[in-house]
Every structure is written in C-alpha cells, then in structure tokens.
Amino acid sequence: MKPIKVALLGCGTVGTQVVRLLDEQADDLAARAGAPIELTGIAVRRPDRHRDVPKDLLTADAAGLVASDVDVVVEVIGGIEPVRTLLLDALRAGKSVVSANKALLAESSGELFAAADESGADLYFEAAVAGAIPLLRPLRESLAGDRITRVMGIVNGTTNYILSAMDETGANYSETLEEASRLGYAEADPTADVDGYDAASKAAILASIAFHTRVTANDVYREGISAVTSADIVAARTLGRTIKLLAICERVGDSVAVRVHPAMIPRSHPLASVGGAFNAVFVEAEAAGQLMFYGQGAGGAPTASAVLGDLVAVARNRVHSGRGPRESAYAALEVRPIGQVRTRYHLSLDVADRAGVLASVAAVFAEHDVSIAAVRQEGRTADASLVIVTHAAPDAALKSTVDKVAGLPAVREVVSVMRVEGEES
Ligand code: NDP
Ligand code: HSE
C-alpha cells in the first residue's frame, strides 16, 4: 500500500508525543488507516536542540517541508504567522491539514476551509479544543441532526489547574502558573491562558460548530482569571460555591452569545469537581437533552491522542478517496454583545452597619430592575459584610448596578464581584 506521507510542523510538548505515538503504534495505525503513515520531515525553529528525534528528519525550513512531496501536514507550532501562510499553502496544494492551533482556527477558519474546499483537501482540528476529549467530532457529526442550544464548560487546563490549587490548598497564583507551564499545559505565552484568550478561541470554535455559524475570537466576550483574588475564593467557599473559568456559548433566538469569564458555581455542580488540567463540557441539544464530555484538556500525550485520531481520519479519507466534513456556517447568526446577555451576579460588600444601609443598596438594584435572589449580612460592629446574589438580568444592568452601589456613602469596599452560573436563575 502506498504510504501516507506526513510533514510535522513543530516538535515541542505536543509534537514530541506525536512523533512517539507514530513510531510506537506504526503497525496499528497502518492497519486502521489502510496504509502506512510515514513521517517524512519535522520542521522546528532550532533543529540542533532536538536530540530525541531522528536528525535526518529535522529541518528549520517549514515552507520547504510543506512544499515537498507530502500528503498531510500536521501543525503543532501554534500562533498565527507563519503558520497561517504555511497551512494555506498546504491546503491550496491539496495537502490535508491536521492542526491543534485554536488561535489560528478561531481567527481564520473561514479562509482555511475555503482553501481546503478549492483543492478538495481535509482540515481537521480536534486537538484545538479540550485536548484529548472527543468533542468537535461529536458536535460536528453525531449531533448534526439535532439543534444545539447551549455549550458550557471548562476548556482551559492551565487556569483550571491554578483555580483548583487556589481553592484546595490556598496555593499562590504565580507559583502554580509556573508549575502548569513546567507540566506542558500552558501556552508558549501563558498570558493567553490566564487572560482568557485561549478559552475565547476555543469558545469561538465551539460556537461556530455547534450553531452552524461563523464566530471568531473577537466576537467572544472575555475575562481571564488574573483578577480573581483569594477574597473571591473565600467568598465563594463561604456560600458553598467554587470559582471556575467558564466558556459559555448560547443560542438566543436568531443570535448567539459567546463569553468566557470566571464564575461561581455550586460545589454540588458536576463542573465543580473538575480539578487540575482536566476539562469538561456540557452540551444541551433539543432532542438529545444534556450531554457531558470530560477528560484531559492539556498536556503532550493527551493532545497527541486527538492529533493522531485526526491523522487516521485524514489517512482513511485519502485511502478511500473520501472527504471529511466541511465548514457549516449557513445559519449566519448575529453575535449578541455581553450587555444584552442575561447573567447573574454575586456581590460581596464591606458596608457600615447602621440602619438604612441595606435599604439604600437594595434601592439601587430596584432602580436598575435587577431582582435580588438572596442577601446575607455578617458583622455587628461598625463594619459589616453584605453578600448579595441576584436573579438573572441583562449584564449591562448588573454592571451599572455594581458601579452605582460602589459609589454609595455607606459602601466602604466592593470586595468581590463575580457572575454566578449553574443554578436556577
Ligand atoms: P511548544 O511551544 O512546546 O512547541 C512549539 C514547537 O513549534 C517547537 O518545537 C518549536 O521549535 C516549533 N516552532 C516554533 N516556531 C516555529 C517556526 N516558525 N517554524 C518551525 N517550527 C517552529 O508548543 P506546544 O506543543 O505546547 O503547542 C503546540 C500547539 O498545540 C499550539 O497551537 C497549542 O495551542 C496547541 N495545543 C497545546 C496543548 C498543550 O497542552 N501543550 C494542548 C492542545 C493544543 P523549537 O522547539 O525548535 O523552538
Ligand atoms: N494551554 C492550553 C490549556 C492547552 O491550558 O488548556 C490546551 O489547549
């Protein structure tokens, strides 16, 4: 059988595991694909630093490797350029592409799919969202006959690793981030993780596939975890909640709302027990009801598993002259701004403990048409702590309420503001 020739772009955390699995599982992969899968070259930035892979495969000339006689390009470099140009060149030349690059897919999937369509090549990117978890294929294929209404979950391993450690052991933020980088979970630039860019890219990809529309990372409302304080963690714990960085994609009528932000969820919620670098995603569909996907969301070997799955799919398509799924963006839905999205807030305030304070705070909520679900006051001295949880209201109204409350003379400090998810609204 004619081998399927593969060029690998990048050989870092993920790439080294792809090389290992290709070698260790060569016979099984050939049997499953219907042809041997042959690695013909590996492009890296600094070939002299890669002593664990065969020297004759290494090159610093990624463009030359893409232009060589290969059937498939597997990209695990990351970032936008030069990768975008390399992958467009590959697709235009009829070479199928497997990528783990959520940043690129969330920015340029339309352009990449168009290039793939022109030449009849495949474009697969299961590893780009939630590491090892088979998620994009079920959304794209298994649920193609259903109407998905909501996708919500933890899609960034690094931030989940940090928040879990802060919650469980009171660990220090920056030390835990260093540990996540050492373990290969974090992006080359970890601000992509902690500032929510990575999760926003993944949310854009999930929303695009789930709702058959085109959503880019710029369409996603984004807040990272760098503003989450130990006071927030303690406030959450006091109320039987924990804090997670959530990606939430919702279909609202003829529009979609896509957001990434930290949120308090009840400790009894299934997402609350997702620890370390694990990811979990809930999908709600009209006919299927609720589905949950769970597994390792980051790390070399788990991500390589998803890459290899795509590679076998591409190889099978080549062997049987088939094609993988194309872009499905026919719904062309509008993207709702965050201000119009209905959310719930938790607010923790330091206030003066005197008559009329609660009434003055409650009046601001009423003025903005924000309904209060629960209030709790602690402290009997001059200072008191006031915790308020709202019912769902437009995010813009909640934000204005917080701004006005912060300016009340009786409010000494707004200690914690956090959206609440995973409870009846
Ligand atoms: P690394 O930083 O560990 O590896 C990147 C690799 O790309 C290195 O081998 C580097 O070469 C090479 N490289 C960088 N620039 C160039 C260039 N211009 N030309 C050729 N090679 C280049 O990244 P990861 O393996 O962690 O991630 C790779 C991709 O996979 C990213 O898109 C990431 O978002 C995605 N991903 C990562 C996951 C993870 O857990 N790590 C999980 C899911 C997806 P050199 O080594 O010589 O510097
Ligand atoms: N940096 C990413 C994360 C890698 O922490 O989730 C997996 O996409």
TrEMBL record:
Question: Which residues does the UniProt record annotate as the domain ACT?
Answer: 346-419
Requisite cofactors: a metal cation
Which reactions fall under this protein's catalytic activity? L-homoserine + NADP(+) = L-aspartate 4-semialdehyde + NADPH + H(+); L-homoserine + NAD(+) = L-aspartate 4-semialdehyde + NADH + H(+)
What GO biological process terms are annotated to this protein in UniProt?
methionine biosynthetic process; threonine biosynthetic process
The record, for Pfam families, names: ACT, Homoserine_dh, NAD_binding_3
Record-listed NADPH binding positions: 102
Task: Work out whether the entry's keyword set contains Transmembrane.
Answer: no
Positions contributing to NADP(+) binding: 9-16
Q: According to its UniProt record, which residues of this chain constitute the active site?
A: 202
Mind telling me which PANTHER family this protein's record contains? Answer: HOMOSERINE DEHYDROGENASE
Q: Could you tell me what this protein does?
A: Catalyzes the conversion of L-aspartate-beta-semialdehyde (L-Asa) to L-homoserine (L-Hse), the third step in the biosynthesis of threonine and methionine from aspartate.
By what name is this protein known? Homoserine dehydrogenase
